[in-house]
Amino acid sequence: MKIHNLTEEEVFHSLLTSPGGLSEQEASQRFLEYGPNEIKEVRKRPLYKRFVSQFTHFFAILLWIAAVLCFLSDHLRPGEGMGSLGVAILGVIFLNAFFTFIQEYRAEKAVEALKKLLPFNVRVTRNNAVREIPVREVVPGDIVFLSEGDKVPADARVVESTRMIVNNAPLTGESESMPRNPEPFGGEFLQSPNIVFAGTHVVSGSGKAVVFATAMSTEFGKIAHLTSAVEPGLSPLQKEMLRVTRIIAAIAFVTGSFFFAVGTLMERGFWHNMIFAIGITIANVPEGLLPTVTLALAMGSQRMAKKKALIKTLTSVETLGAVTVICTDKTGTLTQNRMEVREIWTPDNEETSVRKLMEIGYLCNNAVFEDGTYKGDPTDVAILKRSLPYAGGARPERISEIPFDSDRKRMTTLHSRDGSLLVATKGAVETVLPLCKAVFLRDGAQRMTDGLEELLLHKYDEMTNKGLRVISLAFAQKKAAESSVSPVVDNTVESDMTFVGLFGLEDPPREEVPEAIRRCREAGIKVIMITGDASRTGVAIAKQIGLARHDPLVVEGNLLDKMTDSGLREAIRSPELVFARMTPRHKMRIVSALKEEGERVAVTGDGVNDAPALKKADIGIAMGIAGTDVAKEAADIILLDDNFATIVNAVEEGRAIFENIRKFITYIFAHLTPEAIPYIFFALLRIPLPLTVMQILAIDLGTETIPALALGTEKPEADTMRRPPRRTEKGLIDRSVLFQGYVFIGLISTGGALFAYFYVLFSGGWQWGMSLPAGHPLAREAATGTFLGIVMMQVGSVFACRSFKDSVFRSGFLSNRLLMYGIIFEIALAAVIVYLPLGNRIFDTAPLPVGIWVLLIPFAVIIVATEEIRKALWRRFN
After folding, report:
1. pLDDT, mean of residues 266-282
2. End-to-end CA distance of the chain
3. What is the CA radius of gyration of the chain?
4. Sign of CA dihedral 565, 644, 726, 732
5. The dihedral sign for the CA sequence 440, 442, 446, 452
6. Separation between Cα atoms, residue 554 and residue 552, nearest integer Å
7. Could you tell me whether strands 469-478 and 444-447 are parallel, antiparallel, or unpaired per DSSP bridges?
8. Beta bridge partner(s), residue 502
């Protein structure tokens, strides 16, 4: 049934209702048949499953295995601290799971938000009486009353309208409010002027409508289902962390297996070899990596919040920095979502003509100014604001009105003034101009000539090419006798009119947008406009903001419907592109095509119609002020200031966060080498144990944590937004990270740690081949030396890891306060572990002379110096 094609009588007949409404009995039966007028949730994973998933991802599984190995080792050889390490690893798993779950708990609430957009109560006619009922009780066949400010409770067919204008922007994305009328319509359903949709609202006027769809059968409900059914997939950072975890697991497993085999060849006992393999495996697992990444992302989200970008899921912080394409809505995102008169024009540009133009604009207008506020359709409000100062007083009595509709594209009001009938008309130039026989000039009306017509059409073209929505105004002064014409018919009053002039209206772009577009282009990010508005408007705005420097490729919804998938993929490769007259499914298809092309896609939006695309994209960005709750809940990021420029700042922050995570991964890996190699020496050289598992724990979860977090707060480097988006294949870990961490800094750090170890041993009288029993004071002092050596190497490596290519002198040693606090913290923590009895008992350490700290400083300096040489060579040859 195409209900928008039917007459009023056919509508009542098809829905088995009448102008008097349903009976209560019939309404109850239909309620049982159709159910409550509520948006149903698509079944989601229960909360407990979401929580459990925090314990079952790959890195968590790796830590579970490490904890089990610790408990196994403690069972085989108690008293070596492996049980305590296992407990600590379990603590890491649980703390990270709770923290991540709480941070992401508010995501995925689009369906609940949809419910909030529906009104609570609605007036209906039942049994020939008007009554108010809860919106959930509305059923097909109900006749609902609508008036200014009301939200529409369900999809309904208009059967009566008194200048009723509805804003469909939350559903269709179109910025222009449109009148509703009860006449049959033969065009597209979504463009029907006789249909009102659930969740939209009445701007002005009033009317009645017959409900034909409720709950999930409404256009609103279809979008809700589409939004909830979309699977967003893993973010780039989640994929990278999975890859990192696999690399770490592989390194740990291969290393442990290799030295188990070496020990077997050296004819060591099975359990001795097993415990050693467990120790070397744990030494290669950075227990502090996962909480450090989580905390770094949380801190990044806090910094973004200060920049007016609210992060809903932690991984979104980095994902935004990886985008290659931003698909942006026009209205309210690139523009200010408010109409204003930018230009007026009369044929002679004289004051008398301008005043007449303002008079007609004031009369042919349904907007009002009450209690210091303008109310009404945005176009009418804009014209009223401009013309009100010219008004001489109260409007002449309005006798009647011929409302605007999409076919006539004009509106006419009739006024009684000084015993005569004044007819005022405004509308599209192509519909008003044919009605005009004269042009208003300073000296009075002058017959319309070909020259005058050519002049005003030229001006019309000039204004539309500026992106203005042009409204033409005309009037006619009729004899008093004609005011009695009833009913009013077009060919009676809209004839022999006098053309007055043009209003050029604009939804102005946001001031910050052109600069933001420029920065996106410089950063290698493609920006595509996807709007529900007409293509001409979209192209004009695109040119104003610099999105289109030439004539862009324009694809409208009807053309997209005819495109094959390959044709769409070819279109999206165009350097400048505008999609116009788009529907929610169109947006979904565009995003899908971009992702199939290997793009990382961000989608911005504020309306209900944007929600599916927001969720389908790699990163969804909703407007916090103008955005609907649906869009906000479907998105990953909410812009608190609705400013497109905020996206660019957030992209810069996201790119910096990715690089910063690489920095502290390098920093963490640099300490795995000096943790692992002493174990190798222990096995091969038969020396006293150089490092206990509790000391490894103190490094991985203690001394390195704050400096690693400090690296996560490094400011974006100067050229961050002048680089292209990182390649898809570029991960958190590549050969440069592995070489710089494990090999370059790692081996120098190992040299410093082993220097401290052997210095303490030889100073205490130890000689090669001398066996020291477990717990021997000299063995504890030597292991403490190794621990202290690694800590001091951390001081040098944290400065070395601040940038992969820029000199630390350029960054400034004191420019990152958290870094300095982190160094102070790790030195203080190391001192507590080395010199306090409690630290000695827990971590198997022993006090050392203060002079050993001084002896280790040169090794830290060597790390910084060699890194400076490497960076200088890189800058020279790259």
Report:
1. 66
2. 67
3. 36
4. negative
5. negative
6. 6
7. unpaired
8. 345, 472
Residues 6+ apart with CB under 8 A from 406: 178, 191, 193
Residue appearing with tokens 């044709």: 567
Percentage of residues of the chain with pLDDT beyond 90: 23
Look up residue 171 and give its two tokens.
Answer: 């559903």
Name every residue whose Cβ is closer than 8 Å to that of residue 187 and which is 6 or more positions away in sequence: none
Beta-strand ranges (E) seen in 429-560 are 436-441, 444-447, 469-478, 497-506, 526-530, 553-556
Torsion over CA of 226, 227, 229 and 232, rounded to 10 degrees?
130
Asked if 845 and 695 touch (Cβ cutoff 8 Å), the reply is yes
Average pLDDT over residues 206-217: 88
DSSP string, 379-416: HHHHHHHHHGGG--SSPPEEEEEE---TTT-EEEEEEE
Q: What is the pLDDT of residues 101-127, one digit of tens each?
A: 665 554 344 334 434 544 467 889 998
pLDDT above 70 coverage of the chain, percent: 83
The C-alpha atoms of residue 95 and residue 679 are separated, in whole angstroms, by 29
Is residue 329 annotated as part of the catalytic site, yes or no?
yes
- Run of H or E residues at 461: helix 450-465
Name the CA dihedral angle for 163, 168, 172, 173, rounded to a multiple of 10 degrees.
110
Contact between 329 and 604 (Cβ < 8 Å): yes
> Please, are residues 834 and 746 in contact by the beta-carbon 8 Å criterion?
no
Per-residue three-class SS string for 728-781: CCCCCCCHHHHHHHHHHHHHHHHHHHHHHHHHHHHHCCCCCCCCCCCCCHHHHH
Of the residues 74, 150, 329, 618, only one is catalytic, namely: 329
Exposed/middle/buried for residue 449 (C-beta within 10 Å: 0-12, 13-18, 19+): exposed
Does residue 571 sit in helix, strand or coil? helix
How many other C-beta atoms are found inside a 10 Å radius of the C-beta of residue 194?
23
Token look-up 């862009």 returns 552
DSSP 364: S
CB 340 within 8 A of CB 330: no
Angle of helix 270-283 relative to helix 236-265, nearest 10 degrees?
Answer: 150
Half-sphere exposure of 232 (CA within 13 A, CB side): 28
User: Dihedral angle at the C-alpha atoms of 567, 572, 577, 579, nearest 10 degrees?
Assistant: 70
Average pLDDT over residues 451-473: 85
Residue type, 640: L
Q: Residue 285 carries which DSSP code?
A: S
Q: Spell out where 534-680 has E strands.
A: 553-556, 577-580, 601-605, 619-623, 637-639
